[in-house]
Design a protein that fits this description.
Layout (H helix, E strand, L loop, with lengths): L1 E2 L6 E3 L3 E4 L2 E3 L2 E2 L6 E3 L3 E9 L2 E4 L3 E3 L5 E9 L2 E5 L3 E3 L5 E9 L4 E8 L3 E5 L2 E3 L1 E7 L3 E5 L2 E3 L2 E4 L3 E2 L4 E2 L4 E3 L4 E4 L35
Parallel strand pairs: 1-5, 2-6, 3-7, 4-7, 6-9, 7-10, 8-11, 9-12, 10-13, 12-14, 13-15, 13-16, 14-17, 15-18, 16-19, 17-20, 18-21, 19-22
Antiparallel strand pairs: 23-24
Length: about 220
C-alpha cells in the first residue's frame, strides 16, 4: 500500500486496538510507513516489516494520548530522515514492552526518534541501527533492555541501570526470524511486566527469568 502523506498501511485518527496484525511492505510519502496513530492505541502481537517513509518507517505516533506496544517486532523498516522503526512526535505516554527492533544489516537511521511526549521502554531489544534511541524533545526512560547499535543513545535518556549491550543471536535475521537462540544476551534479562505470553503464545517466564524482546 502507498500513501501520499501519512500512514502507508493505516492512518488511525481515533482510538485503536490492534492485535495479531502484520504491516508489511507499505510506503508513505511523509509519516508512518506502516501506520500512523493519532489517538489512544494498544498494539499487541503484531509485526512491522519492510515499511518505508520520510519519518517513522515502521510507525509514527502523533498527539498526546496513551499508547502501548507489547510483543511487537519491527524489522527492516527505513526512514529517509528520522526514526527508522518508530517516530514519536508526541505521546503521553507511549510504552514499549517486550518489543524487538532489529534488521539483517546496519540501518543508518536511529531506531527510535523522540521529538516530544513521554516514552518508556522496558524488556525490549534495540539493535542493528547507527543509533538506538535519539531524543530531541520530550522525556525518555528505559530499563531492562538489550542494545546492540553503533551508538545506543543520542540526547538525554534516563536509564534505570539494568540494561546491557550484547550479542542478540537471532535465529535467522535474513528471513525475518528474530526468535532468540540459547546464546542470546536477551535471555533472562527482563523483569516481570505482567505479560505472561510472548508473540508466539509461549509462556513467560521460562527457565531462569523473563526474556527480553517479542520472543
Amino acid at each position: 500500500n502507498t500513501a501520499f502523506n501519512d500512514g502507508g498501511g493505516a492512518l488511525i485518527l481515533g482510538a485503536a486496538v490492534i492485535t495479531d496484525t502484520a504491516f508489511m511492505n507499505n510506503l508513505s510519502g511523509l509519516h508512518g510507513g506502516g501506520a500512523q496513530f493519532e489517538g489512544a492505541a494498544h498494539v499487541a502481537n503484531s509485526t512491522y516489516i519492510n515499511n518505508t517513509s520520510v519519518s517513522g518507517g515502521g510507525a509514527y505516533f502523533k498527539t498526546a494520548s496513551a499508547k502501548q506496544l507489547m510483543n511487537v517486532l519491527f524489522a527492516r523498516n527505513s526512514a529517509a530522515t528520522n526514526g527508522a522503526a518508530i517516530y514519536v512526535a508526541d505521546a503521553s505516554p507511549l510504552a514499549l514492552v517486550h518489543v524487538t527492533i532489529a534488521g539483517p544489516a546496519l540501518n543508518p537511521r536511529a531506531a527510535i526518534f523522540v521529538q516530544g511526549g513521554t516514552v518508556s521502554i522496558t524488556n525490549s531489544i534495540v539493535a542493528s541501527h547507527t543509533t538506538g534511541i535519539q531524543r530531541t524533545g520530550g522525556v525518555v526512560s528505559e530499563n531492562y533492555n538489550v542494545f546492540a547499535n553503533t551508538t545506543q543513545f543520542d540526547g538525554s535518556v534516563s536509564s534505570g541501570g539494568a540494561s546491557i549491550t550484547g550479542v542478540m543471536s537471532f535465529v535467522a535475521p535474513a528471513t525475518d526470524d528474530y526468535r532468540l537462540t540459547a546464546g542470546s544476551a536477551a535471555i533472562n534479562r527482563g523483569v516481570d511486566m505482567g505479560v505472561d505470553t510472548d508473540f508466539f503464545g509461549d509462556v513467560r517466564p521460562q527457565g531462569g527469568g523473563f526474556d527480553v524482546g517479542y520472543d
